[in-house]
C-alpha cells in the first residue's frame, strides 16, 4: 500500500460527530485506545490463530508508537490503521471518532481499501455527482459503470477500466479525484456532490416482469422487498449489484419468503460454535421465476442470499462475481468514541464451501462495456430478461 501526500482537508471516515481540532496529547488516552483494540482482536476475532499473526509481538512493536503519536490523527493514520491492515479478511473496519484533520504536507498511510467498496473518501453523493461507480476488487478500482452525461465520462472513464488512486483533494464544493491506469493514462475528475439515487426501487419491466432493487439488508428495506415479492405473480429481476449486506436476521427473513421451510441456508462457523440457518415457515412464499443481478459490490448478506438461491436452483444469477466479503461481524465501541468492526464467524454455503475472498460466481457472466454504457444499456438486466422470456 503506497503513501500519499495530501493538502489540508477534512477526511470524512464515516462517523457523525465532527472534531473541531486534534485531541489533547494524552498518552494514557492513546494507549487506552490501542490496548482496547488489541484485547478485542485477541478475544473476539473469528480465527483464534489470528491469521497467523504474532499478536504479542505486534503489541510490543506498535504500543510504543501509539504512545509516541503526537495527535489523534497520527494515532489512527500511523499506528492503528497499519496494525489492522495486517488482517486480510473482510469486516475489519476501524472508524475514528469523527473527522480527521490532516496538516499541510502530511505524509500518511492510507487505510487498506475494502473489497466491494469505493475509495474510502467517496460517498454515495460523490458517486452520483461524478457519474461513476468505482469498486475495489483487491488489486485496483474497477470502473463498473459510467454515466455518459457525467464528469467521469467527460474525463475519459469507461466501464471495465482498472485504476489506482493517484490523488484526492476535498471535501469541498468540487472535490477532485486523480486516477492512473497501468498503461500510463491519467484521469482527473472534478464534480459537485448531488443526491444519490434512492436505495430502494421497484418498477415494471417489459414483458410483465418486475424489477426489485434494495441496497441493504436492514429491517425496512427487507420488509418492503418481501411485500413486493409476495404481491407479484409474475417473474422478478432482483438487483443486488449495489447491496452491501446488513443484518443476518434480515437475510434469513428475505430467503424465508422464497425458499421452502427447512431449506439449508448455510452456516456461520465461529470460534466455539456454529450458527446453522434454515429457511423459516410462512403463510406465503414467492413462487415466480427469479433472476438475480450480482456484481463486485454485492457483499455480505447479499452474497449469502445469492449463494443460497443458486444452490437450491431457485434463481439464476447474472452479472459478475461478487465481493467475497461474507464474515459475520460485530462492532465495538472504543474509549475515544471510535468504533471497531470485527468478524466473529465465517460463512459456509449449504454445500460447505467458503466464499470469503472468493465470492459467488454468476451463472451467466455479463459486464458493462464502453459501448453499452454509451447507449445507456444494462447488459446484465437484458440477459436476465431474455432468460425470463425464454421460460427456461
TrEMBL record:
Q: Which GO terms describe its molecular function?
A: serine-type endopeptidase activity
| Any single GO CC term annotated in Swiss-Prot or TrEMBL for this entry | outer membrane-bounded periplasmic space
Q: Give the highest taxon in the source lineage.
A: Bacteria
Give the E.C. number(s). 3.4.21.102
Q: Supply the InterPro entries for this chain.
A: ClpP/crotonase-like_dom_sf, PDZ_sf, Tail-specific_protease, Tricorn_C1
Keyword Iron among record annotations: no
Q: Name one GO biological process term.
A: signal transduction
- Keywords in alphabetical order, please: Hydrolase, Protease
Q: What class of enzyme is it?
A: hydrolase
Which residues are in the Tail specific protease domain?
A: 170-367
Q: Cross-referenced CDD domains, in alphabetical order?
A: Peptidase_S41_TRI
SMART domains registered for this protein in UniProt: TSPc
PANTHER family in the record: CARBOXY-TERMINAL PROCESSING PROTEASE CTPA, TAIL-SPECIFIC PROTEASE
Protein name according to UniProt: Carboxyl-terminal processing protease
Amino acid at each position: 500500500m503506497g503513501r500519499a501526500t495530501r493538502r489540508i482537508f477534512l477526511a470524512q471516515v464515516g462517523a457523525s460527530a465532527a472534531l473541531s481540532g486534534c485531541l489533547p496529547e494524552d498518552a494514557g488516552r492513546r494507549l487506552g485506545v490501542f490496548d482496547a483494540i488489541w484485547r478485542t482482536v485477541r478475544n473476539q476475532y473469528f480465527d483464534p490463530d489470528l491469521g497467523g499473526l504474532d499478536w504479542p509481538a505486534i503489541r510490543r512493536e506498535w504500543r510504543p508508537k501509539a504512545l509516541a503519536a503526537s495527535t489523534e490523527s497520527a494515532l489512527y493514520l500511523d499506528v492503528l490503521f497499519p496494525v489492522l491492515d495486517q488482517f486480510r479478511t473482510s469486516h475489519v473496519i476501524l472508524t475514528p471518532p469523527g473527522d480527521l484533520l490532516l496538516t499541510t504536507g502530511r505524509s500518511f498511510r492510507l487505510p487498506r481499501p475494502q473489497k466491494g467498496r469505493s475509495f474510502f473518501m467517496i460517498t454515495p453523493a460523490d458517486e452520483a455527482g461524478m457519474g461513476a461507480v468505482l469498486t475495489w476488487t483487491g488489486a485496483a478500482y474497477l470502473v463498473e459503470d459510467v454515466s455518459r452525461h457525467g464528469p467521469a465520462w467527460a474525463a475519459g472513464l469507461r466501464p471495465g477500466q482498472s485504476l489506482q488512486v493517484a490523488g484526492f483533494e476535498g471535501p469541498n464544493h468540487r472535490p477532485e479525484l486523480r486516477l492512473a491506469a497501468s498503461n500510463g493514462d491519467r484521469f482527473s475528475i472534478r464534480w459537485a456532490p448531488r443526491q444519490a439515487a434512492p436505495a430502494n426501487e421497484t418498477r415494471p419491466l417489459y414483458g410483465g416482469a418486475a424489477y426489485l432493487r434494495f441496497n441493504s439488508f436492514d429491517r425496512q428495506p427487507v420488509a418492503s422487498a418481501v411485500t413486493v415479492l409476495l404481491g407479484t405473480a409474475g417473474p422478478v429481476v432482483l438487483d443486488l449489484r449495489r447491496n452491501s449486506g446488513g443484518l443476518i436476521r434480515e437475510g434469513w427473513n428475505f430467503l424465508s419468503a422464497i425458499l421452502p421451510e427447512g431449506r439449508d441456508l448455510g452456516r456461520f462457523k465461529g470460534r466455539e460454535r456454529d450458527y446453522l440457518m434454515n429457511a423459516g415457515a410462512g403463510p406465503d412464499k414467492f413462487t415466480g421465476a427469479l433472476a438475480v443481478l450480482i456484481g463486485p459490490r454485492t457483499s455480505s448478506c447479499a452474497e449469502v442470499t445469492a449463494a443460497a438461491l443458486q444452490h437450491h436452483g431457485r434463481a439464476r444469477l447474472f452479472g459478475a462475481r461478487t465481493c467475497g466479503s461474507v464474515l459475520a461481524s460485530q462492532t465495538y465501541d472504543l474509549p475515544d468514541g471510535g468504533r471497531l468492526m470485527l468478524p466473529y464467524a465465517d460463512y459456509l454455503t449449504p454445500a460447505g464451501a467458503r466464499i470469503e475472498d472468493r465470492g459467488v460466481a454468476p451463472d451467466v457472466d455479463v459486464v458493462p462495456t464502453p459501448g453499452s454504457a454509451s447507449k445507456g444499456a444494462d447488459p446484465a438486466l437484458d440477459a436476465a430478461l431474455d432468460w425470463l422470456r425464454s421460460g427456461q
